[in-house]
Each structure stands twice: as structure tokens, then as C-alpha cells.
Amino acid sequence: MIKFEKALNIILKNVTCMSGEKCEINRSCAGRVICENVISDENIPNCDNSGMDGYAVKYRDTRRPQTKLKIVGEIKAGTKPQRIIKTGEAIRIMTGAPIPEGADAVVMIEKTKYLKAKNEVEILGKLKNNENVRLKGEDIKKGDLVLLRNTVLSPACMGVLASLGKTSIKLVRKPRVSVITTGNEIKHFKAKGLAPGQVRDSNRLSISSSLERDGFTSVFVKKVPDNLKVTKNILKKALSCSDAVIVSAGASVGKYDFARPALKQLGAEFSVDKVAMKPGRPFAFCRIKNLPVFLLPGNPVSTLVTYEKLVKPALFKMAGKILPPSKVLKAVLLHDIKKEAGRKEFLRGILFRKKNGYFAKTTGGQSSGILNSLVKANCLIVAGEKITLLKKGTKVDVEIFE
Length: 402
Hints:
This protein is of the alpha/beta class.
């Protein structure tokens, strides 16, 4: 049995980043990693423009008190100025509209008074040179390195690409993941009237939805019975169409568990087999021709916890991303927790805040088959391998759910 941290390190060393692919830029690119530097071939903005609704003026005309200027036109956003501004003149201008030739400042409308009788504007207060003028290339200059390769495309990055008129970009390919659930007792999650001992395939939906949430693609999702030949054929198909395979209940070693022997017949090399963690001890990891296969315990809670702690970091690396560290808080434990030495435990917990700090308690029974205990939880209470008792009133590490 391998310690949790060692198992994770082995897995991460045995997966590599995916290759790049050229993609049309659209909203589906958000959250993905770019494989190239992005250099601007334009200035943003492409001309000097107004940062306010107001009047474009010559700064020197406004230096004397109670300046009155003749209004000689109007410039809307997106239109080209039709005249050069002269001494003693002002032009109404809207936010984003190009600054007319001859003007070097914009007076915001709140600092002016319109004199209708003479079609003039009186300037109230002082003005600075270039005030309220957004200069050409102020945001991005032509030739600037805008985005570095390995950048994760945030909504702001997407906006920058759009403003530059980019239509395609090279991105790290998203890992294609197959999900296989095993067992004669497993029925489709929509099944009605289950016989005694039968269970609905909750793992199929929980794993697939976890993958979708994290930005990965489920390309092949299948349930297989407890049959070696069928299991081997399904695994062979999954390996042929995906970049990683997740097998639920594949970590088991019972008489009718055939995922392991099927994988070994296909040439699997196991580097992780049983992890000193709870829930999730039966977890295993292997590779077949460098393609990673994750064997998850079949109990629903174990499936989700091992996905989060051991599979998700590996898939993030394959996608070219670094998984942010878990948000950990110290919280006062509201009751004793006993555990066995030698395993790192992730207990489903409820974290809440009072005036005097954070407090935590478990959701109740911690059996790996009680999925509802994970629904009630908003955190995991973490207990290290050497700990056998967490006492009421002591501070414990708590990992907050996103």
C-alpha cells in the first residue's frame, strides 16, 4: 500500500501534456491553455478617442476662467470627425468617439454649461492637457506580446483575442476520457423497479458530470457486466478512442472483478496499487502504451473522492494546466474523531463560521457507500496517516469545496 502523496506523485510523473491543435476562437476556448505566444498586429485603441461624454477642445482655450467656446459639431462613437477643431471652438463628443484633429482634451459634460442662445458651451473648472483622452495604443501597442504560451484563457483573455480580431489560436488538446462502470448488479440510472441487490449506475453520471465540470470530454461511456471477454473488448475500444480511461469498480480484486485481469492481458503496467487513504484504498493506476488508466473503487463516495484527489490533478496536467491547491482552513472540531493509523483520511464535513472563528463536524456516518453524506458536506476534514484521534476542541485542517 502506497502513501497518498507518493501515489499522486507517481501518477503525475506518468502523464504528459497533450499536443496542440489549431482551434477557431469561440466561447468554448475559455479555460483552455494556449500553445503559442500571441503578438498584436494592431494598436488598441486604434486612434485617440474620448473617455467621456463631453466636448472636445483645445486645452489652451480652457486656461482662462469662465471660458466660452462655440459648438461647431458632434462626433458619435464609431464615426469619423468631419472637421479640424480651431481656436475658440468645441465639438460635442461621445465616449469612444475619435478625437478630432486639433483637439487635445475632453471636458466631461458634468463640468460644462450649455448656452443655448449662442450655441456655446461654458467650461466650468480647470482642465488638464489630454484629460479624458484615451491615446492610440494605450491598452495594447502593435507588436506587443499580449498573451504568453501556457496561459489559461480567462474571459478577459477571450476579450483581448476578440479585440485583436484573432480568428484562430493553437490550444492544448483537451483530454478525451472514457468512463467504464462494471458489475452485473449495476443498472442504468433511469431503471425502474430494481430487484434486491441491484443498484443504479450513479458513478456513471457523477464521473461524467465531474469531467464536464472540469472542462474535459467524455468520448465513450459504457457499462460492462462481470465477464472477462466483454470487459477486455470494451476496454480495448475505450483505449482506441481516448487519451485516458476511468474504470469504476475496476480496483476490486474479487472473484467476479475482471477489470484488472483484462487490463493485464492488454499489457497494462501497474505503478500504483492500493493507496493509504480513506475513502479510496483500493484505487489503482496503470498505463497501456503510455495511455493512463485509473481504476476507481466502486463505492460512490470512494469514486468521487479518488477522482478529485488522484484523477483530476492528472487530467489537469494532461490539459496543460496546474490544478490550484485546495483551499484549506483551520477549524475547531465539534466532536472526537477516531481513526486507524497509517491512512490519510478525508472525512465528509460541515464547516460553518461563528463570530469567534470556524467550526467543523462530520456529516455523520462515513461509510463509502453513503453518497448522501457527500451531498450534505461542504468540506473535507483531513486527518494525516499518523493520527489516531482528533479531539473535540482541537483545530483541524479543512478543505473547502469549490
